[in-house]
């Protein structure tokens, strides 16, 4: 119950509108498949562009099949973009898509829509794959935008942002809005997909980010901002300028970010606190240095613990991410992760089971050890499993064990009943680990 608007789609919408292409955004967050179908039947758009990621691909295939089976939409061109399409371009085209947009979408969508409108050739449009006489044509890759400051703000007026705020309020008592200040990530984590931006790092100017914040505050009422960037404090110079602009303009905000321990220090933490940051998510993934090194995270687990503790000391909330089941991880590593969380004592932590995304180093390293790969149209990469140190069922218990033992140790302010629940749950998890090992 923490929804955010699709900033990528809204950025493309704003770019097209700026260049003379009127467009509507169908926001599926608060809608249904049947409502989408009716919307398409009624409006019969010339172009239907759909964002596709790992979690949405199955529904995207369903939408394509509906469009292709509906006579009223026989002339509609289907364009797919997003991180999932790079590794699945051919089957998506064979499924009925007309064009696949690889990488950033703004310039490519403008050129593609211009060509469709003018019945022009698609041969010279960079960044697309398409079919010509049943043959798949792969055009040259498009270069990444050099100046993302030139992009208009995401076209938030195209969606009902109040629905997002109301959902937040009803579930959490406060509302949040998302803002992007950068594109790309230059780090090398083996499990992370870089299908859209590659290993780039491009940043909007602090003053332009402040402009967007002021625009949001003028047009909407919300309680906090979620900066969606992979590593918010990656550039100390940018961070200093951002904090200075926020102070000079007397902008009052509460915001949360993601960062890395090696991109945090006393200065960065102080600037974050002074400019309104209330929560920092610090990537860890494991409490075992051996596993962090296997992931090519290039960070010291001791530094992670230090920065989580220091974040708390400065009055901000600390969150962290944990991944279990990475290749080579043993039970000893899992216990190191438990101790890491207890010692660092974050306010929040999330746990996921490692899975190989196509196009990543983790996928290539494990592909010869796959034990399950689902049908393409009805599964996604999260469903892929590989030969791990222990049987698959073991990790269901391991996740239960880690979550509940850590909560039993660090959550002292909960009721005795809740602490007993944590205790019993972690014991059950530990027994399950032993039985399935």
Topology:
Layout: H1 7-18, H2 33-43, E1 47-51, H3 57-68, E2 77-81, H4 89-95, E3 99-101, H5 106-117, E4 128-132, E5 135-138, H6 161-172, E6 176-179, E7 182-183, E8 202-203, H7 206-219, E9 224-227, H8 236-248, E10 255-259, H9 266-275, E11 277-285, H10 289-294, H11 301-313, E12 317-324, H12 331-344, E13 348-353, H13 361-366, E14 370-372, E15 385-386, H14 392-410, H15 416-436
Parallel strand pairs: 1-2, 2-3, 6-9, 9-10, 10-11, 11-12, 12-13
Antiparallel strand pairs: 3-4, 4-5, 7-8, 14-15
Helix pairs in contact: 1-5, 7-8, 8-9, 11-12, 12-14, 14-15
Structural class: alpha/beta
* Morphology call: globular
Mean pLDDT equals: 97
Q: What string gives the helices and strands in order?
A: HHEHEHEHEEHEEEHEHEHEHHEHEHEEHH
Uncertain residue segments? none
Number of helices: 15
What does this protein structure show overall?
With 437 residues, the protein is an alpha/beta fold. Helix content is 42%, strand content 15%. It has a domain of 132 residues: Rossmann fold (3-Layer(aba) Sandwich), CATH 3.40.50.280. A six-stranded parallel beta sheet has the order 6-9-10-11-12-13. Strand 10, helix 9 and strand 11 form a beta-alpha-beta unit. Helix 8 packs parallel to helix 9. The longest helix has 21 residues. It is globular and about 65 Å long. It starts with 6 loop residues before the first helix and ends with a helix. The model has no long low-confidence stretch (mean pLDDT 97).
Keywords:
437 residues, alpha/beta, Rossmann fold, five-stranded mixed sheet, 15 helices, 15 strands, 42% helix, 15% strand
